[in-house]
Amino acid sequence: MMRIIKIDELIIDEASQIIENSILGLVTRSPKTIMIGDQNQLPPISVQNSVPYSFNSPELHSLNYGSYHQSLMERLYKLYNSNGFAQSTVMLTQHYRMHNAIADLISDYYQNKLKAATPEQHKALDVMPGQPPFLTNRLIWIDCPPAKSAHYDPLQVELISTITASLISNHSQIHPARDIGIVAPFRAMIHALRDSINKLDKAIVIDTVERFQGSERSNIILSLPIRSENDLRLLESISDDELIDRKLNVAVSRAKQRIIIVGNMMLCQKSAHYNKIIDKISSSGLILSYTDLMQQL
Question: Can you give the pTM of this predicted structure?
């Protein structure tokens, strides 16, 4: 194709999802390349080991190579920033998905520059008569005991099924497939949730954060079925500079109107990223114990 068509300008969408060697051939043949994407979200999926590159050459070391999983966009973003090439990068600060309260949970990942683009993103929740008190909040953390089994927690399955049923019964205009999404980290937990939630509505999507990337729902329920600090490490996808948890960023930013996180606070607070989320929900949302919530339902 390159022999037939002359390319003057190359635009690559979702560039942060493409490993470097997949697009280098095109990039080297174009006088100008524009990459669009979010390097703070999940990197390209690859079966290659994520061990960082190691170079003896100072010149190669200075080019900000990370690992095979790093996209060309992320590497160049770091390279341009470290060399002061401000004219080569721009961040779109307006967003149209999340309510402002939800966006605030992850705003520090974007230098606190995110701005809600519409008036609807600042509105208070509509409170329905007879609605359980917890549903009057946009930011909710449900504190549960640590899971007793690896990668699976029947207590959370029961709780999330009850929350889902409450969302459906207390919102007359809700469309479950469009308005409810459940994010869980482990296949065992996902299968258990599907077996339970399918009795309410088979169209509700229950999947990993990787499969939710690019999607959105009015209400996101994030399940964290962990029993130890080692399990907590499995939930994370930390950037090389340790400033961003990519999985947490993607999970939270799927929610348009409400985010409900279900997990053991004491364990999750051992992560600096989850600890910050908990602090923000504590000051701007609602934290409930499992038993207190079940009394409301």
Answer: 0.92
